[in-house]
Amino acid sequence: GNTEGRRQDWASKSRGQAVGFVSEDEYLEIQGITREQSGDYECSASNDVAAPVVRRVKVTVNYPPYISEAKGTGVPVGQKGTLQCEASAVPSAEFQWYKDDKRLVEGKKGVKVENRPFLSKLIFFNVSEHDYGNYTCVASNKLGHTNASITLFELNEPTSSTLLQGPGAVSEVNNGTSRRAGCIWLLPLLVLHLLLKF
């Protein structure tokens, strides 16, 4: 057909904002593309004769995993505990958990590994003393891998005596005792002062 005055307008339609590009042919080259530039792009081809033809293409930017969240947690003995590891990657990351350089395999007694495309959970159903320590979460895909250290630490459950005698209660008792002691010392001085007046 007639290509006189022909042009291609490209626009990124991702994240609710249109970013325009102009190209002289049907190819769009983006130098140094980043993962933020992935998404839907629309190509509008037009010339001076016919109405514009619009086509939409999806651009996927592959990148190695990076761990966005990995927090330690405190759990009392005998309770359920969960360590979480969140990683962003395209293609989606595969997760592995290690403790003391030993890989934790699915099905270990009392422990479950729950994997989703961007999140992995290491679940302890009944935490014991030997479960405490540092764990390593490894996230990997075909472009690379990364890891993070996450700690499961012991959290002491408050007992009934510590609830009844918290720091506030103790200091209140101490202050009350010192005030009473002060009054007892002032009483003889007051009596002596009154006797001296007469």
From TrEMBL:
Keywords: Cell membrane, Disulfide bond, Glycoprotein, Lipoprotein, Membrane, Repeat, Signal. It comes from the Eukaryota. Residues 1-60, 64-151 form the Ig-like domain. It is found in: Cell membrane. InterPro entries: Ig-like_dom (IPR007110), Ig-like_dom_sf (IPR036179), Ig-like_fold (IPR013783), Ig_I-set (IPR013098), Ig_sub (IPR003599), Ig_sub2 (IPR003598), IgLON_domain (IPR050876). Gene3D superfamilies: Immunoglobulins. The keyword GTP-binding does not apply. PANTHER family: IGLON FAMILY OF IMMUNOGLOBULIN SUPERFAMILY-RELATED, NEUROTRIMIN. This is Ig-like domain-containing protein. It comes from Felis catus.
